[in-house]
Amino acid sequence: MNFMKGEYEQIRTYYREDFGNTLKMTAWAFTALLLFGFLGGLLFPNMGTGFVERFTAQIHQSGIISSDGSIRVSALFANNIRASMYTLIYGLLPFIYLPALALGLNAILLGTLAAYYTHSGTSLAFFLVGVLPHGVFELPALVLSIALGLHLCAKITRTVQHKAHGVVLPAIHNAVCMMLFVCVPLLLIASLVEAYVTPLLLRLF
Fold first, then answer.
1. Cβ contacts of residue 154 below 8 Å, gap of 6+?
2. Eight-state DSSP code of residue 65
3. Can you give the pTM of this predicted structure?
4. How distant is the alpha carbon of residue 24 from its chain centre?
5. Nearest Cα to 36, choosing from 105, 100, 83, 130?
6. pLDDT for 15-61, tens place per residue?
7. Distance of CA 84 to CAs 42, 186, 192, 197, Å?
């Protein structure tokens, strides 16, 4: 118990003193790109159709959907963890800020999907019910993992440029702790909600 308390206290300090601004900027950028994707999808409906087809194909190839059409929680959770960890690992590469690519792709995809449902005549409420119950947990975890990757990349880039010492290892430690104690629980809850709660809500439509 004392160990967990100490880790969460360190995470709070890390957020207040070092990481908070990066997380806020990442969240604002995600929101702006999501709106951009929504507007783009409204203006160019064919773009939304292509996104949906590729997204559906990726879901089926990932093994998340079982033969009876239900969601496999373990596969969904593992897929989300893997995507978050890749985003963090990309941050280890200096200068190129690869996590920004995940930021743009995910935000624009989500906005484009919303526009697709609007164009297809399906109620936007149907889309929101399909996304928000688990999205309130999954989207913060997604934004957090991207922000961690960007923050880590910035730290490593400055270290290389200025030949600083004693910066990289604490930054990696803080990022990994944030992933383990914040992102992972959020993604677990999101997977359970998406598998068991979201389908029940969608049946109302």
1. 22, 97
2. B
3. 0.93
4. 14
5. 105
6. 999 999 999 999 999 999 999 999 998 888 877 777 777 777 777 77
7. 29, 12, 17, 23
